Amino acid sequence: MQRLLTRLSRLAEVFAVAGAAIAMAVALMVVVSVVGRAAFSLPIQGDVELVQFGIALAISLGLPWCQAQRGNIIVDFFTQRASPRTLRALDAAGALALSLMCALLAWRSAAGALAVHAAQETSMNLELPMWWTYASLAPGLALAAAVALVQAFVASPAAPAAPTAAEKAAS
Length: 171
Fold this sequence. Notes:
Elements: H1 2-40, H2 47-68, H3 84-119, H4 131-155, H5 165-170
């Protein structure tokens, strides 16, 4: 399980780098559009649509890495005195809940893409096909679901404990 989690984490890192590149491209486009609007009265046509699409994609691509790094907010006020076994159970339950939520979102994004494709819906200004926007969200959400699911099994109190540094060095 740990090896699978490592592979998923590497893939999540690739997704995150792609998401960061998309976010930077969107930021650059915004700067060019604002300068073009202010200096030459020539903004980038449909810049708001492109920002919406690009940032949604960047966020969905960053979610798996955030989960792989355990970067989500954890409120530990009520669990400060809990046993390690209880903490593992809570971590497993939280990861499982996140996995189910991301899987549901990935499924509905893909289903939405099919429905929007069938309806031939396009964006208002650029008249871009909307289905690809919905479809582009599904891979990041699906990977986030997979990472969280594996983490749920790894964190489960029934799962074997991760080897300590001394055990790793001995093997």
